[in-house]
Write a structure and sequence with these properties.
The structure holds two protein chains of two kinds.
Chain A lengths: L1 H21 L18 E4 L2 E2 L12 E2 L3 E5 L3 E7 L4 E2 L2 E5 L5 E5 L4 E6 L4 E2 L1 H4 L15 E2 L3 E4 L6 E5 L2 E3 L3 E8 L2 E8 L2 E9 L5 E9 L4 E3 L5 E8 L2 E7 L22 H10 L25 E2 L8 E2 L2 H9 L21 H12 L5
Antiparallel strand pairs in A: 1-7, 2-6, 4-5, 7-8, 8-9, 9-12, 10-11, 13-14, 13-19, 15-16, 16-17, 17-18, 18-21, 20-21, 22-23
Chain B lengths: L3 H14 L5 E4 L2 E5 L10 E6 L5 E5 L4 E4 L11 E4 L7 E6 L2 E6 L2 E6 L9 E6 L12 E5 L5 E5 L2 E2 L7 E2 L5 H4 L3 E2 L7 E5 L5 E6 L7 E3 L5 E4 L9 E6 L28 H7 L5 E3 L12 E2 L12 E4 L5 E10 L2 E11 L7 E6 L5 E6 L10 E7 L7 E6 L3 E6 L13 E7 L11 E6 L3 E6 L2 E5 L8 E7 L8 E6 L4
Antiparallel strand pairs in B: 1-2, 2-28, 3-4, 4-5, 5-6, 7-8, 8-9, 9-10, 11-12, 12-16, 13-15, 16-17, 18-19, 19-20, 20-21, 22-23, 23-24, 24-25, 25-36, 26-27, 27-28, 29-30, 30-34, 31-32, 31-35, 33-34, 35-36
The chains are: A alpha+beta, B mainly beta.
């Protein structure tokens, strides 16, 4: 009898979540669209170039500085520089845990990040005016990079003993809502699908290849675990890590990173993508607002007594978000952030400025 | 013509019933606005219909929405068919489960293979044009009737940069200019056959934001007023022809790559170029032509077979009246719809399968001020009084009306005509030149619906004859005929 009730409850839960999933999810005026692990968001758009090398973008041509031009006068004083962007890539977002950018020109994963997805404001414009940013309309990544491609394509295909690196994109098929990209490289027909791994900051590339006898897979710089059924059907689990700004080729920060400080904390709130889910003005997001959090009593799922949101609580919530989930919010949404203590302390200083007086 | 008071009453009544949705009436037609689901930006990149009569709308941010049209314009039950597309601006609906989309990077076949109502296959048909990274490089498609497509590939704008890393090939020479062609095949029309193989078709475009193969197999595209476009043109597209915007020449395999097209003498460009079949005088008629739409034979009123050309930068839709003179198309234009409730930003259009209703999609986001939306123009049962065709004669023009005209229409003072010409060049837009008043020497009747205007000394070579007709109750007053060739 008891098991029947449990079964009914389980069915109800399944049905409930199914009807939620079946609901159409449109792209709206919200410039920070997000997917979920069950229903990732796929979006083809311009992407920023967070410091990819020429070996990675080997099949792209180079844009050059150009002389300014006036339709009335012809060539005029001044030069126009290109900007850093990726023109033909596809973004996939699984919620706060994982986003990646897969490029349809190079036919490879370019970078992955966590926290949020994209801030489309530069490109889609302000909802009121619709104005894109005039010279820098590339969307911003929300959250820190955990993987950035380096070197030549990790998958080497040998055609008559000559390595071929001129992939041709064929499209993608959604399998359980996740795209499986298809491309050819020489005689090889390659399908690859990338999903979040079971551990934080990991993802799995599932390869299925035909048309050739064998391929070689090699990529350095990240911990990679290859599991193969046979030489042409294998999966690679990549363990990412939070990339420092110098690694991703960004400009030096204008705040100190010597010891914990408030400015650093403010910057991390954006850089780590906290802002994707936690507001600072009390607005409800995917996670609880930071406004008034510090020093408050929190109702925790599964606990009788409210818990004081002190420094210990904040540190735990960053390192192990599943330890205490605030009542009314979904568990498993936030990925753990194994960041250095100075960064955590800086975030604590930032949260302290948002406490209720 | 409905009395203004009655019209006002109708508008108010409609306004009360469907909060926020106004109906506007014109002689013979009514116009309604159609909302999308709450919060969805109505930035219409493309519109089409399924064989079973559902409307398919590609929005520019990502999504393709489908709904069964309802009599009440506010009751469309939208659902999501596909998503994730980069600025989809061309659509061909193949079946209830398959659409073809042209988006910024490629031509894509999108299929719902498992019949659950939402697409799961996004197959690249062709991606042979480049992407400089410039925001302006949108495109459009028209089916060739044999399983392939013609594609209009727009140029980049100097209101935005290019990227360091370019998809396709980059041309330093093509990068120069106001609207420029820095990446492969910008400013061209390409043909992609049923197997996905691309052949370049014709070149010399600035922003041919819309292409149409008509029912007779003729290909048409407008362009936007700007550099090398003194006013908005409407072109008959022919294989290997050049249409006057020089930047695209750098992608011609025959082009001498040491030459800069922008430094070509104007006389050489004029020698090479094919003139517009019809010029649409700037501001008087149309500011930025978008998708040409052919009017169905009957159900939409008297204009069957003619082509409509929406204004992407105005609340108007132009109507094109074509004839062949000396083996080449030329003709006139007038307003099909002018203001009267129509939004700005008219970008795409499609007729419902029952051919009674024109759906018009609007967007300007990222190019100009917001002018986004979806509207429809429905044929009503009231009569239309209009000039159906304006054609050239040896001594002037012939006006064929949709209804018999009274003898008062033979009064020459009802017709004011002036002639001018345009000169395309590197500057942005161009003035009307050599403006000359053209007196009517005679107005005579041909039959009960047709009058003939006689004038002296008709000039060819692209002269525009702008005619203002002062006949009571006529739907449109202004008609502009472009004389390329004499009869």
């Amino acid at each position: 009898m008891k098991s029947k009730i449990l079964f009914a409850l389980a069915m109800l839960a399944l049905f409930g979540s199914h009807s939620l999933m079946a609901e159409d999810r449109y792209i709206t005026l919200d410039n920070k669209p997000l997917g979920t692990p069950e229903k990732p968001l796929v979006l083809r758009t311009y992407f920023p170039d967070p410091g990819l090398g020429r070996e990675v973008l080997a099949n792209h041509d180079l844009g050059f500085r150009a002389r300014k031009y006036s339709p009335g006068k012809g060539d005029v004083e001044g030069l126009e520089d290109p900007i850093r962007g990726i023109p033909g890539a596809i973004g996939v977002n699984f919620g706060a845990g994982l986003s990646y950018c897969w490029d349809a020109t190079e036919c490879r994963l370019l970078f992955a990040w966590q926290g949020g997805f994209l801030d489309m404001l530069n490109y889609w414009g302000d909802p009121e005016s619709g104005r894109r940013k005039s010279n820098g309309y590339i969307p911003d990544l929300v959250g820190p990079l955990i993987y950035l491609a380096r070197g030549s394509h990790p998958l080497a295909v040998f055609d008559d003993f000559v390595e071929s690196n001129s992939p041709v994109f064929k499209g993608y098929r959604l399998i359980d809502n996740v795209p499986e990209f298809e491309y050819t490289q020489g005689k090889a027909h390659i399908r690859v699908r990338i999903v979040p791994g079971s551990e934080p900051m990991t993802f799995v590339k599932q390869y299925s290849i035909s048309g050739v006898e064998e391929v070689a897979y090699l990529e350095s710089g990240y911990k990679q675990k290859v599991e193969s059924k046979d030489p042409l059907n294998f999966s690679v689990t990549v363990t990412g890590r939070l990339l420092s700004e110098s690694e991703s080729g960004e400009l030096a920060p204008d705040y100190s990173t010597e010891k914990p400080n408030l400015e650093w904390g403010k910057a991390l709130y954006t850089q780590l993508g906290c802002l994707a889910c936690h507001s600072t003005d009390g607005t409800r997001g995917h996670g609880p607002s930071f406004a008034g959090t510090f020093g408050s009593k929190r109702k925790i799922t599964g606990l009788e007594e409210p818990v004081l949101a002190d420094e210990t609580y904040i540190v735990e919530s960053i390192k192990d978000p599943m330890a205490k989930v605030v009542d009314g919010f979904p568990p498993g949404y936030m990925p753990p952030y194994p960041i250095p203590d100075e960064q955590i302390q800086s975030l604590v200083l930032f949260l302290q400025t948002l406490k209720n007086e | 013509m409905k009395s203004p008071i009655l019209f006002l009453f109708t508008a108010l009544a409609v306004c009360t019933v469907f909060a926020g949705s106004l109906t506007f009436a014109d002689e013979g037609y009514k116009l309604e606005s159609i909302p999308f689901p709450e919060g969805v930006p109505p930035e219409v990149g493309a519109v089409g219909f399924t064989p079973s009569g559902e409307i398919v709308v590609a929005l520019r941010r990502s999504d393709v929405l489908i709904a069964k049209p309802t009599d009440d314009p506010t009751k469309f039950e939208w659902r999501l068919f596909a998503s994730g597309l980069h600025n989809a601006c061309g659509i061909h609906v193949v079946s209830d489960t398959e659409i073809i989309i042209s988006q910024m990077p490629e031509l894509t076949r999108i299929v719902d293979t498992d019949g659950d109502g939402s697409a799961d296959l996004y197959e690249t048909i062709n991606a042979s044009w480049g992407m400089s990274g410039n925001y302006h490089e949108t495109n459009h498609l028209t089916p060739d009737g044999k399983g392939g497509y013609y594609l209009a590939i727009g140029t980049a704008s100097h209101n935005g940069p290019v990227f360091y890393n370019v998809r396709g090939e980059y041309s330093k020479t093509g990068r120069r200019g106001r609207n420029f062609s820095a990446a492969s095949w910008k400013g061209w029309v390409l043909h992609v056959d049923a197997e996905g193989n691309m052949t370049p078709f014709c070149k010399g475009f600035r922003m041919h934001n819309g292409i149409l193969q008509d029912r007779d197999g003729n290909l048409w595209a407008g362009d936007n007023q700007g550099d090398w476009r003194a006013t908005t043109p409407f072109y008959h597209l022919q294989k290997d022809h050049f249409y006057g915007h020089p930047s695209s020449l750098v992608w011609d395999p025959e082009w001498d790559q040491t030459r800069d097209p922008l430094k070509m003498p104007l006389a050489e460009i004029n020698e090479m170029r094919t003139p517009a079949a019809v010029l649409l005088p700037h501001e008087i008629m149309n500011r930025s032509a978008s998708e040409p739409i052919q009017i169905p034979d009957t159900a939409f009123g008297p204009y069957g077979g003619q082509i409509l050309l929406p204004d992407n930068n105005g609340n108007r839709i132009s109507r094109i009246m074509l004839e062949k003179v000396d083996g080449q198309f030329q003709g006139a234009c007038t307003h099909f719809w002018n203001e009267n409730g129509l939004n700005l930003g008219n970008n795409r259009g499609a007729f419902s399968p029952d051919k009674t209703t024109l759906y018009v999609g609007q967007t300007s986001r990222g190019w100009g001020n917001l002018a986004e939306g979806l509207q429809r123009i429905i044929r009503t049962d009231s009569d239309v009084f209009d000039v159906l065709t304006m054609t050239l004669t040896e001594n002037g023009f012939r006006l064929h009306f949709t209804q018999p005209v009274a003898d008062s229409a033979l009064d020459p003072s009802k017709y004011e005509m002036q002639r001018y010409r345009y000169e395309d060049g590197p500057t942005y837009g161009g003035d009307q030149l050599d403006i000359t008043a053209i007196p009517m020497t005679e107005v005579s009747r041909v039959d009960d619906k047709t009058v003939e205007l006689t004038i002296e000394d008709i000039k060819d070579g692209g002269h525009v004859y702008e005619l203002n007709v002062g006949i009571e109750g006529l739907r449109s007053q202004v008609y502009c005929y472009t004389v390329n060739r004499l009869k």
